[in-house]
TrEMBL record:
GO molecular function per UniProt: UDP-glucose 4-epimerase activity
Known cofactor(s): NAD(+)
Pathway: Carbohydrate metabolism; galactose metabolism
Keywords assigned: Carbohydrate metabolism, Isomerase, NAD
Listed EC numbers: 5.1.3.2
Complex and partners: Homodimer.
Organism: Desulfofustis glycolicus DSM 9705
Record-given protein name: UDP-glucose 4-epimerase
Reactions mediated catalytically: UDP-alpha-D-glucose = UDP-alpha-D-galactose
Pfam families: Epimerase
NAD-dependent epimerase/dehydratase domain mapped to chain residues: 5-253
Record carries keyword Isomerase: yes
GO biological process, one term: galactose catabolic process via UDP-galactose, Leloir pathway
Enzyme class, first EC level, given as a word: isomerase
Amino acid sequence: MKSTILVTGGAGYIGSHTCKALRDSDCLPVAYDNLVYGHREAAQWGPLEYGDILDHARLDQVFRLYQPEAVIHFAAYAYVGESVVDPGKYYQNNVAGTINLLESMRRHGCRMIIFSSTCASFGLPKMIPIGETAEQNPINPYGRSKLMIEQILKDYDGAYGIRHIALRYFNAAGADPEGVVGEDHEPETHLIPLVIDAALGRRECIEIFGTDYPTPDGTAIRDYVHVTDLADAHVRAVDKLRRDGSSDQFNLGTGTGTSVRQIIQSVETISRCTVPVREGHRRPGDPPELVADPRKALQFLDWRPRFSELETIVGTAFRWHEGGGFRGA
Ligand code: UDP
């Protein structure tokens, strides 16, 4: 019998790519999404159950109906700036919502959860690359909400035997290589889609947030990892929990850093367009460099990024955005 996996936020960016990967590995992904940021069209790899993680009655109904073997939990708000202005929204949805979900899991005897965590939980790291044991000192409510859940998950493991794997994403980017799903945020704040829009003349220019960082070209460095590679890591994480049942944490990045200027250059090469640039001030709270040490995921999840070369990330993202995303579908 197919394994059923409940995917909260399954109509979102990383969630929808993960549902596709689950379907390809012969599981039944059930997307649970309130469609605040998710797209109905993105949930095409299994049933879509409309619902909010704060609604425990609705969650119970869905657990009763599908009796999932495991949960992959993406549903969360993820705008750093907004989390500073409105932390209540982040603690309510991300933290209280996750507790709600965990309580539903307890009531229905579901004992495995894969959790979307973030490199923002490390704050301003003392050392690059960032390994799993680096100190976690988040500097905004979004990062704190994710770290709180990592801690709550450890307590739920000790007390109730719910096993978890926390996956800390670095910069998720790119789109499904088959072009069926992709990134479609409203509002969009991420670098690659904004640079692509500037290349396509859909926005006036891209503003570089800071050109005076202590990096080779003065712009901030990030570890961009293809969303399809992240999706694959989730399938592997479920397998690992099934196999050895031990809770764990993994940093998911490539180990290679790319600067803002290198991203712009790559978009120019792929689009064959010039990207108009404005040099601006640093964005508050942005560290100069965030690069993962992915060795633990390589070793214990046997995870090998296959689509995370810069040309593939930018190429797949460009094709998706050029085609208009879900609006062009
Ligand atoms: N960035 C930029 N201009 C923009 C958006 C982002 O220069 O309009 C920079 C940002 O300061 C960071 C990098 O691009 O150094 C990646 O930002 P993004 O928001 O995509 O991801 P984050 O690293 O903040 O999660």
